[in-house]
Design goal:
Number of domains: 4
Helix content: 25-40%
Strand order of the largest sheet: 2-3-4-5-6-1-7-11-10-9-8
Largest sheet: 11 strands, antiparallel
Length: 552
Amino acid sequence: MTVLVETAPHEFAANLLFNERGLRPYFAADSRVKAGGGSQAGMFTYGGEEWRAKLYYQESGLEHPGKTTPKGTPFEIENLREFRFSIHSVDDTVGQRKFNAHLSPRWLGMKSKNGGEIPVPEGFGEGVNLRISGANIEFEEYLSLLRCAASSVGIQPGDFDDPHEYSNIQDAERYVRLHKDVSGPVHARDGPIAQMGHLLENDREGYRKVVQNDQTGRGEALPGYYHTVTLDQRRIQEAIPSHALPKEIKHYYAQEALSFPDGHPLRHPKLGASYQVNRWKGKLGVTTEDLEQLNRELEETVLSVLANAGIDLRPGGEVYVEDEYLSKKESERERQIVELNLIQIRQTQESVVIKHLADGLSPVEWDSLRCLVTDGGQVSPNNIAESTGYHPDSVRRALNRIDDLVEREYGSVSLRSNYVAELVHESVKHAQEATQRAVEASSKALEAASRGLDEKTSAFIAWAAKHDINFNERSSGVSLKLGKLDEENHRREVRRILREGLRLWEQAKRDPALYRAGNYRYQVEERANGLLYAESKSMTRTVCGKVWETIQ
């Protein structure tokens, strides 16, 4: 079995519903608080650890049901209150291993004091809801700790034995803490967090959240301070097909990280994956199977991001940093390292664009794509037609022909991803530049002819304009400054261009030795894993060479 680093639980929130014993847990909490003069405290041991519990009340915003509930249960409490369990580990020196459980009654037809209806599941009858919110506790331990806490303050633990099927998890995160000197590849501009947001988010449709903040709240520079990407169910399955839960993946530091010395855990960042309940229409319950799925998906997401960034997944060494709740130990769980499909997605999206460019796009297809790239809002085929001057039916037929580049839903259309948008944008820009160069080449040839230069010389000048070449002739040889070339086959391409230039130079009756003795230079757009970087400005290199060495 592969030895993997252990992840630690962080935040957790859930709604636990109980109706097996009706309103009995609520009445019991009311009775115990009154008996204690406003609160009850207790101590218990769980997992070899000492815990303290406190039960207290808060005023309620619920409407009093009267003498009986709608179901007919006597309600002899004059002042309707709600209750809270505060539960924390006594052995925790940091004080963050704790949770709070907010207990409130539930019955069909319940309303708030301002008349608003409180949602209660159909068929639920009567019972209680406990809203749990905690941190640094294994997810499957909350219910056991709740029962122990209830018992310690005089409430039957059996009142919380069987959560109703409508119980659900609202938030959960697992994390590792990385040494600050090794976490850079995770939050880099071409790292897995940025790539997931860059490749998997639709251009306009759906929820988008990509944050790349390298500055603390005090304005101090801290690379990787808060970098996150949030993906809904559809997008997470594009990256990790075996997963179903929407998630946020984040690399983040504590707010005061820079105030701690290097040896302190909070000087180093966390990499976490958290469940995002609002990003899908499904529900995650609290059964053993649900909790196992939650743990598995969060852990596999963290491990997969680490693997994608090239970071060692084995515990020990200087990669991971221990804190109060995370130790550099081997995981006892069997987890699968899921290879993120980012490269495959990037290649697929790139090949789709290249296919259309190679096949040639009609004017209406070009103009439709250009409209989608430049417009920032919701765009319909009719909007495109109005913007471009084409008939709406022509636009719709064009969109049908490029349906693997675009997504259409409810009468609107958008590009499939940011990456496709950038590729199309670059293609449109290059096409415009090529057209401009062609016009420039023609005008320069005409200008040369008007100055009395012969046809062959005009052809050489047009060749230089066509290929965006800045040409200078010196006594020692020519100087050729080409434009930007793609990394793939750039050497073959420059050889072809230079040989064509030599042929035209000779046809113009110029000294070939002067041309051969010349120098050239051009820029190459770098690629990552064979694919073009998004930020080409900072990802280019200059190539220099001698003409005669290249064309021989």
